Amino acid sequence: MAETALDGLKVLEYCQMISGPYCGKLLADMGAEVIKVEEPQLGDAARKRGPFLDDVPHPEKSGLFLYLNTNKLGITLNLRTTSGRQIFQRLAEQADILIEDRPPGEMADLGLDYDSLSAINPGLIFISITPYGQTGPYRDYKSYHLNLYHATGLSSFVYVPRQAEPDSPPVVAGGQVGDYDGGLTAAVAALAALWIRLATGEGQHIDISKFEALLAMERVEICRFANQPDAPPWKGMVGGLVPCQDGHVVVTPAQNHQWQALVKLMGNPAWAQEENCRDEFARAQHRDEIQQRLEEWMAQHPKEEIYSEGQRVGLPVGPVRTVAEIANWQQARQRGFFAPLDHPQAGRLEYPAAAYKMSETPWRGERAAPLLGEHNEQVYCCRLGYSREELARMAAAGII
After folding, report:
1. How far apart are CA 94 and CA 278, in angstroms?
2. Which of 23, 92, 352, 374 is most buried (most C-beta within 10 Å)?
3. What is the pTM of this model?
4. Phi, psi (degrees; rounded to nearest 5) at 201
5. How far apart are CA 166 and CA 152, in angstroms?
6. How far is CA 388 from the centre of its chain?
7. How far apart are CA 4 and CA 363, in angstroms?
8. Fold of the 240-320 domain
9. Quick check: 245 pLDDT over 80?
């Protein structure tokens, strides 16, 4: 029996920052062998992004890089050299999945695109992750998360406190959620392609648009406008992000039975029995005045009390917790969500494990994120048959 869910699967990752590495991380966490390819000396750009351990910038101590690259092997390789491209072809020939995030056309210019590599490895699943996809008028546009998130219009959909509407500017979602959504979408597509390959023996090219991955996460508003472009502006649902006594909660009483649960939580106030609260449509039309009353009540209660009592009456509500609160939350602790890993430079740190529990092939923390070029000898000598002398010569020539 396999010890991990993706035991024996070989993945080649040629990506930087978040989307591609997150896709690789998800596969590595399920047991795939992921070889991360980085530029010699420079490495993944995430190595230069904080937060850094002890707030001291260091390429081996970036929290972003450490998180995104657990359970991977790391090598350096310069694809701008002929030898580097030849080595990459050999690695791709042995791979089941290749993940790349270069601008459209760059892999073809290197002779390392899907058509070229599938000719030597017909079963290869080739994943390309870009801001807008491989086709269309925006395919060559560059984009950071800030640009991409607002380009989708998502910042106009999120709920904000009533006092900030309607004239406040939109705010970007924290945590670079758009980049993670692109990586998650790529991992799901990769697993689907693996399933198809079991039947056909053939790989395929997967074109991931981070823009479309974000749009897919917020379907209601976009579909509403596509079908009713002239519909009057929707004032929105009562609730959303609401300030309370010691922070904020998110409450979503969209349906009538959920609204009744909220009314019960608030002690059945007389104003909640008025005509403007009778159903979902009426509440949407009178959102501002209802929202003000709701916020007045919430301001008198702490978030954990609102959460626990909301659970008791069946109300969809949750506290907005700080990072420190989450790190010490008993639910995450009891389920073993945080796992310690040893890193030669960053030391022993706790990392988020997996968001799933598999009874037969559980998540395992095999290794912390690789040092830059840490596994060069293991991959080039033990896998590809180069001698240590050849390895030294390639390093001196800037190939690895």
Report:
1. 64
2. 23
3. 0.90
4. 80, 5
5. 19
6. 38
7. 7
8. formyl-coa transferase, domain 3 (3.30.1540)
9. yes
